[in-house]
Hints:
GO terms for molecular function: isomerase activity. By secondary structure, this protein is of the alpha+beta class.
Amino acid sequence: MSWRGGWTRRGIWLEVAPGKEVTGSGQKEEAVDRWLLEVIGLPEKLWQRMRHEKQIRLAGDRLRLALFPARELGIEPRWHELTVLYEDDFCLVVHKPAGMAVHPDSSSSSGPLTLNHAVAAYYEMNGIEAAVRHVHRLDNDTTGPVLYAKNDFALLKLDEQMRDKQIGRRYAALVAGRVSPGLRTIDLPIGKDRHDKQRRRVSPSGQTAVTHVEVGEHLGTASLVYLTLETGRTHQIRVHLSHAGHPLLGDVLYGGRRSDFVRQALHGESLSFRHPLTNERIQVANPWPGDFQALYDWLKNK
């Protein structure tokens, strides 16, 4: 369960009215704890810490939880224009452009600009005192939405959704060849390529990987396909489609041609998740970027 009622943020405090099951109880502290664990879904370790640090307070009919303590960014802020797709006090979803990693490979501040650096700058500019913590990743040259958790509670709840495969991601891809409508699901394990540390490959000893495929349109010698994932293996879509004989246009690592596109033609066009507090299903759309749209238009009209 999660909280379906109203809530207010007051500084570091979340304020809610839990109702008579708590305020009318003769054992208020026990009733509060039961309500937090069963209704709010407060993770037990976080509940224990908040109790120890006196971050749970009941005053009259109002329950206050210190869910928004100030945190260090954890990464150097470096400005880059961001497209914010969704934001509230718990979550942030931003568009990741092509050619940018989500996070740095090392702690070096002189390395390439990443999305996390840009989010840190966004937080700093907007007075958001939160650690920069992404919930999932995209490949450097894949565009699409990336979800961030803005407090410990949100991170724990969203990480749980990732583990339980409750975060939905839908991708659009432009691939070589005419994909058969009969290609619906690719269920093939993926492992590391022993001959190239950058690559992954279909391997019987690899990890389970399942990709669902929907043919959108045939475009001459190419196809527009839509993809949803049951698993989130490194390069999963790229490996599976290449193995099926339909590499992403531009994906030179997996059999595509650089002359077709300057990057792999893959874009995350939507992201869905349950709000950490309210359990409401949040659906975030991310329109095709200009280069992907231009490639589609060229294929459509040639």
